[in-house]
Write a structure and sequence with these properties.
Blueprint: H1 3-22, E1 26-34, E2 48-52, E3 57-59, H2 64-78, E4 84-88, H3 89-92, E5 103-110, E6 114-118, H4 122-133, E7 137-142, E8 162-165, H5 169-177, E9 183-187, H6 192-205, E10 209-212, H7 216-228, H8 233-237, E11 239-240, H9 252-268, H10 277-280
Parallel strand pairs: 6-7, 6-9, 7-8, 9-10, 10-11
Antiparallel strand pairs: 1-2, 1-5, 2-3, 4-5
Length: 281
Amino acid sequence: MSTDNNQANTKLISEGIRELLEGGAAAVLVTLLDSPAPDSHSLTIGAKLLIKESSEILGSLGESQLDNAVAHQASGFLKTRDDARMVRVEEFAPELAELHGVQLLFERIEAEPRLVIAGAGHVGAALARLASLVGYRVTLVDDRPEFVSRDLFASPGEQSIDLVLAKDWADSMCEAIATGRGVSVAIVTRGHKQDEDCLRAVISSNPSYIGMIGSKRRTNIVLDKLREEGTNEEQLKKVRAPIGLDIGAVSPEEVALAILAEIVANRRGGSAAPLSDWRRA
């Protein structure tokens, strides 16, 4: 691949990455790290290929057969929990004998995970702080000005939490969730009415995760109300209610931990089972 082609390739991929991050999509960026015989083929160290989850391909590694094999491998990589992995061509495409020894870096490209929290009470505030700490971009929504005051989230680590005063719960939640792609939503408001307004808006936005706090009785009241209104049953089944994993949580901080653990497990594809279970198998 010539220097001009490589520069054009890099520009095309950079633009593709910008667009997919803005749209909340994911992709795999593959970089050619090493080739044992660079003069024997058209590969160039540093060449890149971007494979979007929609299967669209941008760029080239210099060999069409390699591009096709890498694109097929990328779809499987996206289903794993890995953020990056180095592989050699023979590990996934042994039929490309002339390219054995070529080393590639697979990297997951996706927007930072987002969490929208409805309700800034004790649990909501604790969840916002904890989620921000582990790398989520957090939006905290409440209709009470004193609960979303920056004075309550003034430490350097809390400055990134987006605080939203809701004049209307449904409008504020829909605006915060946007397309819903890659967004987790935790509904931890103070009452049935607020839960109902938020869930009705959230379901139509189709986020990646929806959870609602409360007892089985309280959450069923809200779910039954939406069911009576004609909400699709498949959509209602996606709602994690009561929200979180059973860790025996009592304090607001423990409840927040239980909620975030379920959100992470959902995002990463974890089973939420004890890691020590392998000893008992």
